[in-house]
Amino acid sequence: MESSVDHKGRKLLFQRYEKNPILAPANWPYLANAVFNPGAVEVDGETLLLVRVEDMRGFSHLTCARSKDGKTNWEIDSTPTIRSAKNAQEGMWGIEDPRIVWLEERQEYAITYVSFSRGGPVVSLMTTKDFRTFIRLGALLPPEDKDASLFPCCFKGRFALIHRPIIRGEAHIWISFSPDLKYWGDHRVLIPTRPGWWDSHKVGLGPPPIRTSLGWLIIYHGVRLTASGGVYRVGLALLDLEEPWKVIRRSEEWVFGPMENYEQVGDVPGVTFPSGAIIDKKTNELRLYYGAADKVVGLAIADVDELMEYVRFCPMPQ
Ligand code: BMA
Question: 141: CA distance to ligand 1 center in Å?
């Protein structure tokens, strides 16, 4: 089936870019097994992707790829941009899946990413002003934790973090707050898994929350376990603008999922894993960057008005 329409021939909310995948190991300036799950941000009028690159030992690092139109002619740093810290607590087996926001309060970019080491995956934070030098602020919360992003602003003086700890084997999306990016509290479950549904096994934040007039737009992945592993699909939610721990809408259906060959065949089949989004104000389009089958980077594009119209009519979760 064509991946631009559903089984009834209706146009899908997210249209795949016709030249997908936009980045693959063969494009990389040095040997890589996989390039996927990128953070995305606009810097000096260019799209910057901070791509997770898995080397031939199976360890990941992060490398910048820049493009003027966010689709073509990627200029990729010739060596790893950010390697993992060489210590046992954080990142001894690599760093993965960055999310990037411009932090209004601090006038710098915050990159949250997963550090992999003996204690399990943890969410770590680094900051940068230029994507050339980086300050590492260390792990934020205990393992096991993944899929984290800060909000770009503070709420009544507190930073807010969306993340996905695994507690008693349950993998829900949580929100936590901090006055200083160091001490975290006021933890609450934000978006739980839904037993029996397409997002029954795990949920995790995709790109950082996006401010809209209707609320914070959340694009998240949901996993269902099948006989041949997990299927990673994508859903939407809206959070209250002032009180972001309140979920005001949540899509019942997934809005994006594996269909194309490069999403079905790779190191992990059946995975679409969005991790970066950029809104193009000129075209009113949202460009969603996602890892496909843990192997390559895909791009899917949605019209922002159509997206908001869809999420506006999603039910209020019970
Ligand atoms: C998640 C993360 C992602 C990965 C996905 C599918 O748990 O580790 O990095 O893309 O699984 O394998």
Answer: 19
pLDDT of residue 69: 98
Could you tell me the two tokens for 242?
A: 């002032």
Q: What is the edge-to-edge ordering of all strands in the sheet holding 296-303? A: 15-16, 296-303, 285-292, 272-280
> Does a structural domain hold residue 169?
yes
Task: Confirm whether 1 is domain-assigned.
Answer: no
Residue 32 to residue 81: CA distance in whole angstroms: 14
Mean pLDDT is lowest, of 80-84, 220-224, 287-291, 294-298, for: 80-84
**242: exposed, middle or buried (C-beta count within 10 Å: 0-12, 13-18, 19+)?**
exposed
**Nearest alpha carbon, ligand 1 atom 10:** 294
**Structural domain boundaries enclosing 207:** 15-312
Whether 3 is covered by a domain: the verdict is: no
Tell me the CATH number at 190: 2.115.10.20
Provide the pLDDT for residue 73: 98
For the chain, what is the domain count?
1
Length of the chain: 318
What is the band of 118 on the pLDDT scale with cuts at 50, 70, 90? Answer: confident
179 within a domain of the structure (yes/no): yes
pLDDT tens digits for 281-300?
999 999 999 999 999 999 99
- Residue 30's contacts (CB-CB under 8 Å, 6 or more residues apart) are 78, 79
Q: Determine the residue of 53, 54, 97 to mutate for testing ligand 1's pocket, defined as the one with the most ligand atoms within 8 A of the Cβ atom.
A: 97
Whether 2 shows a pLDDT value over 70: the answer reads no
Task: Detail the DSSP E strand segments found in 29-180.
Answer: 34-43, 46-54, 60-67, 75-76, 95-103, 108-117, 120-128, 134-139, 145-150, 159-165, 173-178
Percentage of the residues of the chain whose pLDDT score is greater than 70: 98
CA–CA dist 71, 299 (Å, integer): 8
